[in-house]
Structure formats: structure tokens, C-alpha cells
Design a protein that fits this description.
This is Termination factor Rho. By secondary structure, the chain is mostly helical. The chain contains 6 helices and no strands. Helix 5 runs parallel beside helix 6.
């Protein structure tokens, strides 16, 4: 029999290992090898015997929901601090991006403007 105490395994895991072992024996694998392969398969599929998950720290569902909404709120606050038409934001955009924004604001003469002219026009149209 392979090393290790099987007491920590659930009944379902034990049944699965037994079924797999029988299948291997039916194919002509020796009893010891079949048992070894069966438990290896169960361990690979379920991660071993029954045990507590993760770090042992359980976070209740309501705390997870609160943490997610707090994170979303912080992300939104970060985004609102940088208006798309602020000087520094416009400077960091590509000319192509500025052109799209100018198109959406229907700025006349945009196709012949330089990047600096696009920035100026977008700041005026706020």
C-alpha cells in the first residue's frame, strides 16, 4: 500500500480512488501499481485529503462585497482626478487620439492641425 494515511480523505475521494484502482487492475496493472496510480489521480484532481482551504483566513461574503465596492469607488475617484481635456492629459495623448476626440467634438479644420493646435482647440471646446 502507498505511504500516507487515508483518514483525511473524504468518502467520495476514497470511492473515486477505489473505482480508478479497479479500472487499472482490469487493464492488467498490478494491484500495488493500480492503487498507487489511483491515489495519485485523486490527489491531482482534488489536491489531496480533506483540508482547510487557503490561508485559513475566512472572509465573509459581505466583507468581500464591501471590499470590491470600495475598490471600485477608489478607482473611479482616481479617474475623475484627471479630466481628459486637462493640459497634462492632452499632452500625453497621441495625435491620433486627439484627432478622435476633436472629431467627437466636431472641431472644424482638425485634419490639418498639428498636435499642439489640436490640444489648444480641445482646451477651448472644454
Amino acid at each position: 500500500m502507498p505511504r500516507g494515511d487515508k483518514d483525511k480523505y473524504t468518502e467520495k475521494q476514497k470511492r473515486k480512488a477505489e473505482h480508478i484502482e479497479e479500472s487499472y487492475e482490469h487493464k492488467g496493472v498490478s494491484k500495488d501499481e493500480a492503487e498507487s496510480r489511483a491515489w495519485a489521480t485523486v490527489n491531482k484532481q482534488s489536491g489531496g485529503g480533506e483540508k482547510k482551504g487557503g490561508s485559513g483566513k475566512h472572509t465573509p461574503a459581505n466583507e468581500k462585497k464591501t471590499a470590491r465596492s470600495d475598490s471600485a469607488r477608489r478607482a473611479a475617484k482616481t479617474r475623475e482626478g484627471h479630466a481628459r481635456t486637462s493640459g497634462s492629459s492632452l499632452q500625453s495623448q497621441t495625435k491620433e487620439s486627439l484627432m478622435k476626440e476633436a472629431r467627437s467634438k466636431n472641431i472644424k479644420g482638425r485634419s490639418s492641425m498639428s498636435k499642439a493646435q489640436l490640444i489648444e482647440a480641445l482646451q477651448k471646446h472644454g
